[in-house]
Design goal:
The structure is a single chain. The chain has 68 residues and is mainly α. 68% of the residues lie in helices and 0% in strands.
Length: 68
């Protein structure tokens, strides 16, 4: 019975997990700083274009017509 209760309970992340996450975050920041201004600009431009495309996108639904 106790094993089933433990499966449904949420627990706090372990210290090792948090330290790995912090190290990975620092590595991403260091990688970002090593990029040139041109690379940063091109990446930001790409993200902006994607943002504008998604902002203007609309989802349309056509009812499914069954072919006989």
């Amino acid at each position: 019975m106790k094993k089933e209760e433990n499966k449904n309970m949420l627990s706090e992340p372990s210290e090792a997990y948090l330290s790995d996450f912090a190290e990975g975050e620092l590595q991403l920041l260091k990688d970002g700083l090593s990029r040139s201004y041109k690379e940063r600009f091109e990446f930001a431009t790409r993200l902006y274009k994607i943002h504008m495309t998604m902002k203007n996108a609309s989802i349309s639904h056509k009812p499914f017509i069954k072919k006989i």
